[in-house]
Hints:
The first copy, chain A, has helices spanning 10-13, 20-31, 46-59, 77-84, 93-105, 112-116, 153-170, 189-195, 197-201, 229-246, 259-269, 284-290, 308-315, 319-325, 330-344, 391-410; strands spanning 2-8, 35-42, 62-66, 89-91, 119-121, 125-127, 136-141, 144-149, 176-185, 207-214, 217-226, 251-254, 274-278, 299-305, 348-354, 369-375, 380-386. Chain A is an alpha/beta fold. The longest helix of chain A has 20 residues, at 391-410. Strand 14 of chain A pairs antiparallel with strand 14 of chain B.
Amino acid sequence: MTAEIISIGDELLIGQVVNTNASWMAQQLHALGISIRQIVAISDDKEEIRTALDNAFSRTDLILVTGGLGPTRDDITKHTLCEYFGARLVIHEPSLEIIRKFFAARGLGLTEHNRSQAEVPDNCIPILNYHGTAPGMWFEKEGKILISMPGVPFEMEAMMENQILPRLSAKDNNLVVVHKTVQTHGEGESILMEMIRDWEDALPGNFRLAYLPQPGIVRLRLTAFGADKESVASQIESQIASLRRIIPSLIFGYGNETMEEVVGKLLISKHATLSTAESCTGGYLAHLITSVPGASEYFAGSVIAYANQVKHDLLGVSEDSLRNFGAVSEQVVREMAEGARKRFGTDYALSTSGIAGPDGGTPEKPVGLVWVCLATPQQTISKKFMFGEHRGRNIRRTALEALNLLRLQLL
Amino acid sequence: MTAEIISIGDELLIGQVVNTNASWMAQQLHALGISIRQIVAISDDKEEIRTALDNAFSRTDLILVTGGLGPTRDDITKHTLCEYFGARLVIHEPSLEIIRKFFAARGLGLTEHNRSQAEVPDNCIPILNYHGTAPGMWFEKEGKILISMPGVPFEMEAMMENQILPRLSAKDNNLVVVHKTVQTHGEGESILMEMIRDWEDALPGNFRLAYLPQPGIVRLRLTAFGADKESVASQIESQIASLRRIIPSLIFGYGNETMEEVVGKLLISKHATLSTAESCTGGYLAHLITSVPGASEYFAGSVIAYANQVKHDLLGVSEDSLRNFGAVSEQVVREMAEGARKRFGTDYALSTSGIAGPDGGTPEKPVGLVWVCLATPQQTISKKFMFGEHRGRNIRRTALEALNLLRLQLL
């Protein structure tokens, strides 16, 4: 089955609201094996809506519409659909009951205007809205389905989860689609592509591969189509097993797993503790680590040593090293990591020092130069990187490299 | 002028990526007075792309396309456009130079494949990509414009800001639209709305007001239409001056100014220095502060004291206080701020301690309970907050409250 999503609302077209509804719905439909052909956002305009409906019906079996069901004057979806399907509006008693309770709970009676919210076209199946006042509508016409829902995210999500998705999944689907995302770190998109080219070329015809790059991370999304969910899923697993043999150290996780979650799990499994000493990352590394619930189990703390004096006073970096090598140097980043490990009494300590930019670079130490270091019970490992000119991305990439250094050590 | 946005990429249609590019672009175009008729997301498929182009050209004067320009095989936008406009690919030397430098900076030579990234259709104006390897393309055909850009947000945004928007704004527009965004902190959307209701009701007919809430911040976007840019802009300024009289302490900035930038400017103007001592924010507060270029001028550093022992050892919090009041207490957060101020020798110090969640709450100290404290040369000010259950939002709101406490003190 293929579907199309039509999002109605001027706020989408002026960029005031990001269309998270559409991606949420796409995820849910996709999980049922329904392919989305198109997502379209249009304004609260009768003609635009009619045209979008005509186009969508010509292409797909299932149309999901959100928005334009509210009580205000610019909400015209219901009347437009009523005309489009040649229906007349009738009161839907169960919806009226919900609306009555909704206002009663707020100590208010029902106006004529509120009452009209319970009206639905007489040829649709009404969908109850337990979280708001506008019911959804399910139309069927010549074997095709159109579902209209409110644009308020939690109202729409509750309708989808409890009423619409169960009904849709009861319909037969011919084709099963299975995805798996592989998270990689360590090589950019084009190098990675060269590394896995033979594997990609040998993928069976029912496979698709997409590269999704972010600063410091390339996600690989593997999609496979087939008739049977289990066999397609096992095909995917076997292809990922081959991929893992080619780039074992680049793969750090699957699905939506983050680097900091993976490192956290490894630390817990080893009963190991961690601290950090940060200069150029300025707390971002500690923030990533502590954004994982339960991080207090393995994370003791950090010294953000922005000023050189702090590197000396709190981390014990020697004044000689700072003077002779400068704050951004292998010597200093090593003393920072070792100092943090001692100071916090942790098994591991990570440190960072670099020129995040956009200013502060010199010919010898340009913006983007970064040192990252890991102190372990056995050794101290430092690595140098040359990133770009963008402060935010340099900070992010530095933190990822630090976490990855620890990840590889813990494996 | 009307426009349409076409976002290309399978990841959008399975809901893996939210289409933030489209809303960002819509905002920018809207600010130029260009109305968006439609935003459409389609797959990396030649036929889908051709159909979308045909449809868009039949409706609008300007088409902005993102996605499908990467180096990998699923990126087919460039070849499809080349065919669509009956062009042939030629090397664009300035883009090749950027790509060469891009790989050279990473110590890599250029493969034939990398080189092909610099190819563009011979009938387009190439748009330089200073942040990646795929150039953008500007086509003109029968008075209509099509612009193709990479889907990587920061590459697209830099192209738009520096090259595309200036060119587009040079074209004539009949109606001038002026926006100004007011950043507020301290009250939620509904309370704020009550506070400024009379002002909002009295806005002239050519004004629009939008509330854009985020965790801890409500942005107010004021839009005014008119024939003359200067007079519309001065109308906006005078309305904002009235607004400032109603909510003087809630407004912390304008446009895209962040709380951390505002605080940074205030510190610089007072020649004052800052340090932090963080428990529940786990480095996020220091990260916000150091995300501002030049923060080293006023920020000395931070102790992230996740473990209680660290609060004692590095910040001098007394063991009695920790035992008697617990880590999340007014007493401890005050000792943390005072300890940091002393330890780092700064004029000001901020501290945070709370239950970020989702676990770790008790009936007396539930998830969302947060203490924030500011130590100044004259006094120590602590504030208690009760936030919600979402870890990420609790961390963000705590950091904003801490910065705002300092902002109000510095004013």
